[in-house]
Design a protein that fits this description.
- By secondary structure, the protein is α/β, with parallel strands linked by helices.
- It folds into three domains: 124 residues, Rossmann fold (3-Layer(aba) Sandwich), CATH 3.40.50.620; 121 residues, Serine Threonine Protein Phosphatase 5, Tetratricopeptide repeat (Alpha Horseshoe); 173 residues, DNA Cyclobutane Dipyrimidine Photolyase, subunit A, domain 3, CATH 1.10.579.10.
- The chain is built from 21 helices and six strands.
- Strand 1, helix 1 and strand 2 form a beta-alpha-beta unit.
- Helix 15 packs antiparallel against helix 16.
- The chain binds a DNA duplex through helix 14 and helix 21.
DNA sequence: TGAAATGTTGGGGCG
DNA sequence: ACGCCCCAACATTTC
């Protein structure tokens, strides 16, 4: 029986996977492979590696349930694919597109190496809309979210029902050069720091659909307001599942639409949620059209921004020891769970970039290493957005006051108490700014500033004015 | 998907 | 009754 190759990449799912469906429908024996490629692609962060291990295990189980095998490889995608095609006399490769510059370039090289002997079929599996398909009237790409969003909404719904694939013919013999999941060495061993991740997440398609169902049943109705409250479980938390392609955004879109049909009361929350899903597409869209986004500011004048370089300050930030309780809570949630609430991400990013004047690339790198949903498109677009140099970015002078944000969005201090236990006994009135608490209140709460909780590493008013001055001093014509 | 400074308005206390 | 002041509440502008 002729054989085809199904190359899994960031589409680690069996439901609504066009590449998989095409391979099944083609009728050939399917050689399903995943390649951990650390030569062509940016090295994964620690949290992503942990997730990937479990995601691959889940995909192996799902494919096994279809009667198939997922073959794992470690090395250069280009040479591994070439050898597989030659050794197995393959006529077809099915794959889902990736949009990161490195991944897209790799895809092009593979295409050129394999064609014309092998037909390479690419499918849209990661996004709601292909980036080439959304353009302005003059055929140039959008730079602002809202018109992009409206353009998306004018199109037919991208929703797709979650139909499981038909059983295919799978190639299950051992392939030379393949390895076991354990041999990919994705899990931390010395030390094993993944306990918080294990307690928090269930990687894989099943975990993804559970998260979505839970969100649609419990939280979507109040999403519009609750999504800003980090102490509330008001978001779907599907971002890591989406990043690895364990669930398709088109299926999410469909499920949300279905939920609205069944209960029109959730319309407002559902619309707000789908808008966020379009933001995700927008990040990929920007990266596709501006592939230098991971390194260069979208607004070129920011190339001359007078960043400071203070490694100690960055360390304090990354460990959640800034003396600003909301910032510290966020950074510790990240360290412990591999995830941070979006409202808090905006606050900690603004703090690093504006209060501390550290280049956004440092924050991007830390998030890349520690987030289970680390995603080049979203990470770079969001950091540039926070730093004021991105597409449709917050104006630079929009400097979050971390104390006010805390009072506004964690009014009772519940989120802070969860992740900054040394402040847990402080009353809500003082928990956002322990330095303002009377000595007796601090004493009663067991808080010793400078001893078991730090004084603020920078003073807000001074830092704000310094950031505004730095922005003003930026050469306007550089880049 | 801000915050702070500045400006405006209107109700109430008070002489 | 009236002007004056205070200031909270809201609106505008500035960063």
């Amino acid at each position: 029986m002729p054989r085809s190759l199904l190359w899994f990449r960031q589409d680690l799912r069996v439901i609504d996977n066009s590449a998989l469906d095409a391979a099944v429908n083609q009728g050939n024996a399917i050689i399903a492979v995943y390649i951990l490629d650390e030569e062509n692609l940016r090295a994964l962060g620690g949290a992503s590696r942990w997730w990937l291990h479990h995601s691959l295990a889940a995909l192996q189980a799902d494919i096994s349930g279809l009667g198939g095998t997922l073959h794992l490889f470690h090395g250069n995608s280009q040479s591994i694919l070439s050898e597989l095609c030659a050794a197995n006399d393959l006529s077809t490769v099915h794959l889902s597109r990736c949009y990161e510059p490195d991944a897209a370039a790799l895809e092009q090289r593979v295409y050129k190496v394999l064609q014309p002997a092998v037909d390479v079929h690419r499918y849209c599996g990661t996004l709601l809309f292909e980036p080439e398909s959304i353009v302005k009237d003059d055929n140039s790409p959008y730079k602002v979210f809202t018109p992009f969003y409206k353009s998306c909404l004018r199109r037919p719904s991208p929703g797709r029902a979650p139909v499981p694939p038909d059983a295919g013919n799978w190639f299950n013999d051992t392939l030379p050069g393949s390895c076991t999941l354990e041999e990919l060495n994705l899990l931390p061993v010395a030390p094993d720091w993944a306990g918080g991740l294990r307690d928090t997440w269930q990687p894989g398609g099943q975990g993804a659909h559970h998260k979505l169902q839970h969100f649609l049943a419990e939280a979507v109705a109040d999403y519009k307001t609750d999504r800003d409250i980090p102490a509330i479980d008001g978001t779907s938390q599907v971002s890591p599942h989406l990043h690895f392609g364990e669930i398709s955004p088109r299926v999410i879109w469909h499920q949300v639409e279905q939920a609205v049909q069944q209960n029109p009361d959730i319309q407002e929350g559902a619309t707000a949620y789908l808008r966020e899903l379009v933001w995700r597409d927008f990040a990929y869209y920007l990266l596709h059209h501006w592939p230098t986004l991971p390194t260069d500011p979208f607004r070129p004048e920011f190339a001359g921004f007078p960043w400071q370089d203070d490694e100690q300050l960055r360390k304090v930030w990354s460990k959640g020891q800034t003396g600003y309780p909301l910032v510290d809570a966020g950074m510790r949630q990240l360290w412990h769970t591999g995830w941070m609430h979006n409202r808090v991400r905006m606050v900690v990013a603004s703090f690093l970039v504006k209060h501390c004047l550290q280049h956004w690339k440092h924050g991007e790198a830390w998030f890349w290493d520690t987030l289970v949903d680390a995603d080049q498109a979203n990470n770079t677009a969001s950091w540039q957005w926070a730093a004021g140099c991105g597409a449709d970015a917050a104006p630079y002078f929009r400097i979050f006051n971390p104390t006010l944000q805390s009072q506004k969005f964690d009014a009772k201090g519940d989120y802070i108490r969860q992740y900054v236990p040394e402040l847990a006994a402080l009353p809500a009135k003082y928990i956002h700014e322990p330095g303002k608490a009377p000595a007796q209140v601090l004493k009663d709460a067991g808080v010793e500033l400078g001893v078991n909780y730090p004084f603020p590493v920078v003073e807000h008013k001074m830092a704000r004015e310094r950031a505004l001055a730095a922005h003003k001093a930026m050469p306007k014509n550089s880049g």
